[in-house]
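Supplementary Note 3. Input sequence used for the single-chain structure prediction.
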Amino acid sequence: MTSNLPFRAEHVGSLLRPECLKVARAQREAGGITSSQLADVEDQAIQSLISKQESIGLRDITDGEFRRAFWHLDFMGGLNGVQLYPSEQGIQFKGGQTKAMGLRVIGKISPAPHYMIEHWKFVAAHTRQTAKAMIPSPTVLHYRGGRKAIDPEVYPTMEEFYHDLGQAYKRVVSDFGQAGCRYLQLDEVNFAYLCDDQQRKMLRDRGDDPDQLPSTYANLINTAISGRTDGMCIAMHLCRGNFKSMWIASGGYEPVADVLFNQLNIDAYFLEWDSDRAGGLEPLRLVPKNKRVVLGLVTSKVGELEGKDFIKRRLDEAARFIDLDQVSLSPQCGFASTEEGNLLTEEQQWAKLRLIVEVAEELWG
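The predicted structure, written as discrete structure tokens, is reproduced below.
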């Protein structure tokens, strides 16, 4: 692992889209501009975003996922054998649904170059700091649709599916490393969902075993990240759903904590702890001394700004279970896991990120 990663002040990655980008994407969907013209708008918006991140003192720099509509669908649709398609309904959150898009496996999943590596290269070429890449965890391809989304003629057994998916991801991770990426984040919602009683019932009802999936997923992820190059930090972000300030799951990390911290070859964990839905901080006791945790104590779902004293008290609570030398600070999730974004303003977003930087400097220097 790269020794200085994660930084003390972090962010998950996605950021609210500016109006100019929203307009350009709408124009592209309507056929009013070309793909090249949209890319020009994205390039300009991302360069401005990079400068803003640097100006407030962030050292992990992202493109805000400005080139994506969904945090996971866009990437998954770029894998060989995977199809992104208009589905009958969107992903159900507490209070609404996303756009109706889905994923299905229609052919053999095979290793191949992924177009999003070029997105990371653009950030790396335009920042003086560390460019972080964010990709969805491979588990997403199974969890969302289950066995029904995987063509049985292509994959008669799930073992074959998990093998090929792991190998495809291994190639992607290796390609990021060969391109110079030293900071790669897997966005992994499913381990957190496995702590929710309703989600566990849904899995059992469709024929999956929620008690077995953590180990199955751990093996898949370990295969995926075995393509890492020397010096690469692999982080994992966990949350319970993030769309227009809505959520999906509840439940503390205890049911998956041992597998999460001790079976996964992950260097650092971005953990959501901004509300009671995430449970207590006790699972931190299981984090090994050689791993780091980024505590998501600042919410990205509402604009109200947390107080510094509140954050420091929460960190004092965490110190009962983990050495604060192993700890960093971040929002609990991105500000725009989908292009719609959460229900707060850009000004409020940046105020929260400045707060994180300031608290980190006061505590760790």
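The chain has one domain: 19-364. The mean pLDDT is 96.
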